[in-house]
Amino acid sequence: MLNKLACSITHLLDARREGHSLPAGLYTREDVFQADLEVFFFSHWIYVGLECDVPEPGDATVIDISNTSLILLRDDDNEIRVVRNVCRHRGSRILDPGSTVVSKLVCPYHQWTYELNGELSYAPHMGKDFDKSCKSLKAVDFRSIGGLIYVCLSDNPPEDIADLENAMLDRLAPYDIRNAKVAHQIDVIEKGNWKLTMENNRECYHCSANHPELCVSFIDLDFGYDPESLSPADRQQAEEHFAMYNARTAAWEADGFPSATIEHTRNVETNFRSQRLIIAGAGESQTEDATAASSKLLGHMTRKDLGDMHLWGHNSWNHFMGDHAVTSMVIPLSPDKTLVRTKWLVHKDAVEGVDYDLEKLTHVWTETTEQDAELVARSYAGILDSAYEPGPYSRFSEGALDEFATWYIERMRAHGY
């Protein structure tokens, strides 16, 4: 039988109307926030980083999710590891937040020392009968999907992560993200609930009015429109665009580049969507003039006309282009604060100032992320108001939001709420 807390959340879930945004409490309440962490960040697969975050043996970086701390590192055998940032002695944190280089993992408290594969190698003054073999750092279940690191903190991780792996293996291969490098990173704290951050990213209804830099290369029609609201000339233009889109997709696929839309967003555990999007204007990259930011293309790429390989997850969004990639990770901090960590990736041998200009590389998504942060804050402030009531999604432009809200309700119920 559900406890009182769960029943209270269940009432909110029951109150959600199909085709509408969520009841206010699902965005604002602390008990819901804690349930969200347990269900969506501790029981599902989440994106946490990249193999190229730790390019050399001894490279390590810490990812904190609420009270849980993980270490992503590369060991002496050049293998990726993800371990809990908790000493097996008395629980001290081993590494501080951020990135570092280590030869071993040494707990600062009592100097318990672990090899980079997590094995305990030194525990002073514990006696001859102390068995070090059972005190390795706790390993975390992870998958590297084309160089993107997904972890699951559950003892029973969803098996349909295989669907994501199968879908993205060929799509990501030409970009060779494992051998890219992080050219730049920014952390933005949005003043709103993590679900608002994800909802905002899953629609472009707001793009033309709020993202002038992005709209140079983004085509908002690709995210839906109401044909009856268009003039005959604009409707004809939209029809011509989608005819061209279908032809371009067919040509890409004929050339061996998977491009068609994959929707894995309802009646599933691992939520994702992928599609190769056309880039507007010059058609090369998401920059202020839609031309490539880096003359050295990513991985094995030889073409700049392959659009934007787009990948959504329930805590991430990613754009892979011929010259660079942009990845964003979402980590909830509280009901009203969300971390958005964005990274720009280039070829591992690309040199700043020679092969790419950092300002051109980062300008569009720096501006877009700041604009989105303001929109999320405005949305959250309105939801806190007693006048808020869930509003209808546009069936033309916000269908992905309805899918996300429906999936959210499904997964909460599957976990007993």
Short description:
This protein is an alpha+beta fold and 417 residues long. The protein folds into two domains: 53-140, Rieske [2Fe-2S] iron-sulphur domain (Rieske Iron-sulfur Protein, 3-layer Sandwich), CATH 2.102.10.10; 158-414, Alpha-Beta Complex (Naphthalene 1,2-dioxygenase Alpha Subunit, Chain A, domain 1), CATH 3.90.380.
Could you say how many structural domains there are in total? 2
CATH architectural label of the largest domain? Alpha-Beta Complex
In the CATH scheme, the class of the largest domain would be Alpha Beta
End-to-end separation in angstroms reads 10 Å
Label the structural class.
alpha+beta
What gyration radius follows from the Cα positions, in whole Å?
23 Å
Unreliable segments of 5+ consecutive residues: none
Globally, the shape reads: globular
Number of helices: 9
Classify the fold: give the CATH topology of the largest domain. Naphthalene 1,2-dioxygenase Alpha Subunit, Chain A, domain 1
CATH superfamily of the largest domain: Naphthalene 1,2-dioxygenase Alpha Subunit, Chain A, domain 1
**Element-by-element helix/strand order:** HHHEEEEEEEEEEHEHHHEEEEEEHH
How much of the polypeptide forms β-strand, as a percent range? 15-25%
Strand order of the largest sheet: 11-17-16-15-14-13-12
Describe the sheet with the most strands: 7 strands, antiparallel
Which percent bin holds the helix content? 25-40%
Arithmetic mean pLDDT? 95
Domain Rieske: 46-151
Organism: Mycoplana dimorpha
Cofactor: Fe cation
Keywords: 2Fe-2S, Iron, Iron-sulfur, Metal-binding, Oxidoreductase
